[in-house]
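Researcher: Structure for this, please.
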Amino acid sequence: MANEFSTLLRQLRREAGMTQEDLAEHAGVGVRTVRGLETGERADPRVTTVRRLADALGLTPEAREELLAAAVRRTGPGGRPAGTEVAERSSPAAAAAVAAPAAAPVAAPPAAPPDEGPPLPEPGVPERSVPEPPAPGLHATLADVAEHLAQAVAARWQREEEQRQVHDPYPLPVRWRTGPEDLTDHWANIRRLPAGAEHGPLDLGGRLNDVLDVYRRIPSGRLVVLGRPGSGKTILAVRFVLEHLKARGRAEAVPVIFSIGSWDPTAITLRDWLIAQLRRDHPGLAAPGPGGTSLAAALVETGRVLPVLDGFDEIADGLRRPALEALNATVLPLLLTSRPAEYAAAVGETDVLTSAAAVQLTDLTLDDLADYLPRTTRKARRGNAAGTAWDPVLAELRERPDSRAGANLAPVLTTPLMVTLARAVYSDTSGHDPAALLDTERFGSPGELEEHLLDNFTATVYRPRPDHRPGGRPRPGFDPDRSRHWLGYLAHHLTRLDTPNLEWWRLGAGLGRATRTLVTAVVVAVAIGVVDAAVGTLFDPVGYQLADGLVAGLVAGIMFGITYWFLVAARGTVVAPTDVRLKLFGRTGRSRRRTGQRFLVGILCGLVFGFGYGYVRGVLNGLLMHAGPALALRAALLDALVYGLVFALATGPTFGLLDALESPLDIRSAVNPVSLLRTNCRTVVTQFFVWAPTFALLLALGPWALIQPLSLVLGPLVWSPTATLKLAVISGLCGPLGYVLALTAWGQWVVFGRIWLPLTGRLPRSPVAFLEDAYERGVLRQSGAVYQFRHTRLQHHLARAHEGRPAGGAV
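Model: Predicted structure, token format:
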């Protein structure tokens, strides 16, 4: 039965000059789906399906809204609404989701009618993929949040596949077989069978495109993927996520990749760590959710996130056993990747991953190389038009496998990592002949060949290129030798921190605690001293103000240095990026209790800072006026008391106001490293421009309110209007400036990423441009809000080279 939506969809398709088959192909849905929607046989178009159809048709925003409206108004047989998602589609979140271009194709089956209860699992899908429905009213909210998360995850990893040229010219064949029995749990546990039931092993062998089907054969939903370095574990994890999202139903969990190498199971539980990672990579999920928890916590606790834990072998030595024990303490469905040796060692110390099957990746074959490598380079210009520069190498491997050259090279080209490095060095670069890999004089072992490929990869990708980036912007030029040095420092930095995650807010964490504190104190002292000296000339002579700026900078540097030491450095932590913004109008949902706590913290901080500042200032004034010790001490204590009260009454309300204005980020605000940096910069700048005038005004009013009452108790106190104005203006600027540089993530980025590390030659003057360029060249990859080296072997190689240990040779 045709309806308004059917008629409109058919009309838009014809106007676009597309057949039903064309529309189905471009939208990533089945032809039967398009045909059913156009004839009215399918009267329940989902929001994701409507959005994908709109994308495929290239509709304008107005046409998108019209198509959405028709989908909402359509009715099923008997005039009854055809599904329970009508209200959800007509919500602002749903309208925005359809009006915006799709982040990634995510196919979904039709929703169940309202009288059929929760949707049933698809054939072959374990029941655990359909979580228990939460309390009434909670289901729709979390379902929408999960949809946003799914779109963000799909868009992120599709971009990553494109960046890493996974499909150019086609994905390398990643295959696996069922894993060793000693690393696999009992099959009865894996198959969730009752006691006494007959059972046997599952056949879990497959190829890259089969990963979702293989996973769905496992009733427990727990799979361990084992593979040696560079064998394609991360590629498989990414493909699993994208395939799962493409076939995901609305009730199924969202697969999310977590780099588990940064997890310390002795410091934080798995669930809390997953929540923290979600909040870092998707700041909007820090918003309050049902029951007072965050949206990230609600998603994890209700089973709407399927953890894909990549890199178990990268967990720090000594932590793998407690990590495996912590994983066994949960029943979460998950996919875990690891090198075999590290996983086997952890299993030997405790037990296998409970209810988990295991698969092991196999090596690439010579036929795989013969199919792939010739297609990555240009055809020969002379002679055989179908021949390529790889023909002599492949002929040696096929015809003389027992030769020294063949025996050296064959084991190297058995992993996707080494094959892609060989492609980058020899196929993607003119003038490099892959026959050099057969030179046994230069390369006497497989290890030397691997080091050669790792060593020359960075030199190759940093060769001068005339190409331009999107938007007509020229690619920034970085000297290959300097780039190698900077990358080496970053790799060494990660090795020292024992983490694969390159986080811009932790660039200073590789330095010693005392060094970090000293650098922060010096930068704060210089910045405040300059501001004090420059602004103070509006009130006092230049000579006096230069001296005043020197004193103010010195005192501020010492005070903020002490504060930084106790709050950050001594605790071995860093200042993490904020996951809030400042909202000047409208309700923000901040609790009065939290605002009151921040108010009290502000009063305490202001009292301590003001007391210290006033005391030092009083001592210095006493020395300058050649006062006796008793008089100087009395003046210092009086100044300490007055400044302490003034700063306390200014800092407390300012902190409370800033907290009251904080609002969670939008739930669609998934981030990458650069966007997170920019978001934090905007937040800090907004904080500064709210803090500075508020703080200055309160500092101006404080002496006026306090001097008279204090004079009655302590005796006459002199405080001129000019001194009040000067204190308000200078402190209103310097107080927020010191706080920003010492106690915000963006300020620490400025101190170390923009000042100290470039000044000492460890990083370039523009680290953001360098990191983004390294990402575009394929040296780094992005994992949410952090960078990682494209492989840990490349990271360790660059770190060794930076430390002066032997590496490979040049081409």
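Researcher: Any notable elements?
Model: Residues 74-139, 806-811 have pLDDT under 50 and may be disordered. The chain has 30 helices and eleven strands.
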